[in-house]
Amino acid sequence: MKRMRGETLINLLLAGMLLLVPLAAWALEEPFYITLATRVAILALAAVGLNLALGLGGLVSFGHAAFFGIGGYAAGILATHGSDQMLVIWPVAVVLSGFVALVTGAISLRTSGVYFIMITLAFAQMIYYFAISWPAYGGEDGLSLSLRNAFPGIGTALPLNFFLICYALLIAALYLFARIRDSRFGAALQAARQNEVRLAAVGIAPFPIRLVAFVLSGMMTGLAGSLFADLNRFVSPSMLSWQMSGELIVLVILGGTGRLFGPVAGAMLFVLFESILGGFTEHWQLLLGLILLGVVLFARGGLVGLLAGKARHG
Amino acid sequence: MAETILAIRNLRKSFGALKATDDVSLELRAGEIHALIGPNGAGKTTLIHQIAGAVKQDSGTIAFLGRDIGGLGVAERARLGLGRSFQVSSLAPEFSALRNVMLAVQSQQGSSLRVFRRVMSDPTLTEPALKMLEQVGLAGRAHVAAAELSHGERRRLEIAITLALCPKAFLFDEPMAGLGPEGSKSLIGLLSELRREAPILLVEHDMDAVFALADRVSVLVYGRVIASGSVSEIRSNTEVRRAYFGEHV
After folding, report:
1. Are residues B73 and B193 in the same domain?
2. pLDDT one digit per residue (tens) for chain A, 314 residues
3. How far is CA A225 from CA A11, A71, A184, B119, in A?
4. Which of A234, A295, B120, B188 sits at 20 to 30 Å (Cα–Cα) from B126?
5. Does A190 touch chain B (CB under 8 A)?
6. Considering only alpha carbons, which residue of chain A is nearest residue B84?
């Protein structure tokens, strides 16, 4: 129980840090850091989605960029057709990525292990090449948004306002993740990862449980994608690329697979590396790779596991 | 004669040239313990797998409570009331003993898609689960992760999970495997109580346990039932003694 409190403390600390940095940057008139923090919040949101499938369900999806990109293109395409309200774009992004997750999940989840990894990658690559060959929305060059999409009553052009929107959605997603993890559905999902034979023997078929998790997971990542498009005011096929899928997996593993705030810790570290080390050398990912290697070999619980100890399951 | 709960008719299963199940017919009746014995490789576990739905038979029928269940999956058969335990303990290792049992309770309530209420503060899950653990003598270890339990405790946890399914028939695959004499003795006591809840199809190597518990014994050799009868009939059957006990009579 003491450990539980330790993790709660770490979580509060991470949530507080992510909120305070942009507030301080705003006070000091350093908007660049607000943008960095927004990037952290959005990537963390996408990774919370992946963490649902990967962390709780043990489903190593190497195709979550598909949902991220679909969310992004939903924002971009709707905006070019004059529908510039986030409250319209978000549901479209969520429903669309959820639908694609349902179709691809129904097929991919019939496999497991390496085959699952490969088939999710294959689906994502199909969507990637589709986007590249679709000239109406920019094809290979991508699609620019002339203005950031609007939210009623809040000026989204102000970096701090947009950050707060993303931050609020991240916190909401984290709350949802925690509730799902501790629920009956979450129990079945985690049992499916630990021992699917046992789960079936008590009368719960693993497939529908995993499918629902995969859909919820795709939805969250899709929502993050639409915010990412708004952050950059630009959507391109790179959001759909396998490198993006890989980055999301790295975030989750770096922060702590299955841990509530793992994706937040992972995204912080990742963006910090990208912006600080990326300033010195374009080979910053080499160092990231070494750290990832260290985490996989010596700290299986990731950053959160390192700080808060082993996870407890009650 | 007591009601037939589980009826297996002319079941066959081959793996290549190996006949793992060769025209097996047997019944499990209400209130009885039917033991299935046989030398290693006789096809006992393969038979349990087919009854539970993990392996599909080549031909023959399996009727449970008067219904043909041959086409159903593992989870569906479990929900109908076939409660099995595994030869090698199969648990969710990270979950505590209590949560392992709670999983069976929630399946029983048919509510595995609920995403909001916290399971650990839900007495409709925790209370029945704790009762099952008490029944097998594991209440004191409820919050220990399954991976950290001793071998004997895991065997008992398997049974507690099976109990939580409120099964109409138990399929126990070598529940005594690897237990010392003390452990076996107390498990024999537990199993003879369980018979009152539902009949038991018991695969077991421990002959003391089989002779103490079974109402009927079937002997499986090379996938075939070579004899079936009461304990004393089986004990005096010469064919059984030759095939199974290796005696030259």
Report:
1. yes
2. 444 578 899 999 999 999 999 999 999 999 999 999 999 999 999 999 999 999 999 999 999 999 999 999 999 999 999 888 999 999 999 999 999 999 999 999 999 999 999 999 999 999 999 999 988 898 889 999 989 999 999 999 999 999 999 999 999 999 999 999 999 999 999 999 999 999 999 999 999 999 999 999 999 999 999 999 999 999 999 999 999 999 999 999 999 999 999 999 999 999 998 888 888 888 888 888 888 898 888 887 888 988 888 777 66
3. 24, 4, 29, 32
4. B188
5. yes
6. A201
CA dist., res. A36 & res. A167, Å (int): 12
How far apart, in Å, are the Cα atoms of B110 and each of A197, A202, B116? Answer: 18, 11, 15
**Which of A217, A223, A218, A224 minimizes the C-alpha distance to A177?**
A217
What are the chain A neighbours of B164 within 8 Å (beta carbons)? 202
Q: Decide if B95 and A203 are in contact by the 8 Å CB cutoff.
A: no
CA distance B123 to A84: 47
CA distance A204 to B171: 18
Tokens of A31: 């908007």
Q: Please state, as a whole number, how many other Cβ atoms lie within 10 Å of the Cβ of residue B137.
A: 14
Cβ-count burial of A162 within 10 angstroms (0-12 exposed, 13-18 middle, 19+ buried)?
buried
Q: Does B102 touch chain A (CB under 8 A)?
A: yes
Residues B188, B142, single domain; the answer is no
Look up the ipTM and state it.
0.90
Which residues make beta-bridge pairs with B63? Answer: B7, B68
pTM of the model: 0.92
d(CA A230, CA A221): 15
A207 touches chain B (CB under 8 A): no
> Is A202 within 8 Å of B115 when comparing Cβ atoms?
no
How far is residue A206 from each of residues A21, A62, B17, B64, B113, measured CA to CA in Å?
42, 20, 33, 23, 11
Q: Which residue has the tokens 């009461």?
A: B230
**Hey, which residues 292-311 in chain A have their CB within 8 Å of chain B?**
311
Are the Cβ atoms of B116 and A195 closer than 8 angstroms?
no
Residues B112, A185: C-beta atoms closer than 8 Å: yes
Nearest CA of chain A to the CA of B233: how many Å?
Answer: 34
B72 and B176, same domain (yes or no): yes
Q: What is the CATH number of the domain that holds B27?
A: 3.40.50.300
Minimal Cβ distance to A203: which of B78, B94, B125: B78
Cα–Cα distance for residue pair B153/B175, rounded to 1 Å: 11
User: What is residue B118's three-state secondary structure?
Assistant: coil
Structural domain containing residue B100: 92-153
| Residues comprising chain A, all counted | 314
What total of structural domains would you count in chain B? 2
- Which two structure tokens, joined as six digits, stand for B203? 């695969």
Same domain membership, residue B65 and residue B11: yes
CB contact under 8 A, A204 and B112: yes
